[in-house]
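Review form for a predicted model. The reviewer records the input and the model, then writes brief findings.
Reviewer: anonymous (R2)
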Amino acid sequence: MLIHLAQNSGGGAAAAGGALVFVIYIAIIVLVIAGMWKTFVKAGQPGWGCIVPIYNLYLLCKIAGRPWWWLILMFIPIVSLVIAIILSIDIAKSFGKGIGFALGLIFLAPIFYCILGFGSAQYQGPAAS
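Model under review:
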């Protein structure tokens, strides 16, 4: 009986640790959504558009100044990577940022969209048009 109680004593700690990880995960998701929301609003697009799948890609094309049909290219496996890189570069340029910031958008998008949204960057118009 004593051995059985000792074996089960770690269950509560594991559950509390799991709950803490879940709360941190949700907080990060909310922060990233808020950063993208503010980025969309700065660019004159509806903020809620960042949480709607496919529509958010359409809005990113508009922000970058690319035609709407680039959205279709996002569904082609290898081509989508190239298009995503080009869109990231154009979005960085649309906010007056350079290639270094574009690399940040490519490799660390959640962090750099928060920097765009909450930072002092101003939308200067679509870079690609």
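Findings: The chain has a mean pLDDT of 90.
Further findings: The chain has one domain: 11-118.
Recommendation: see findings above.
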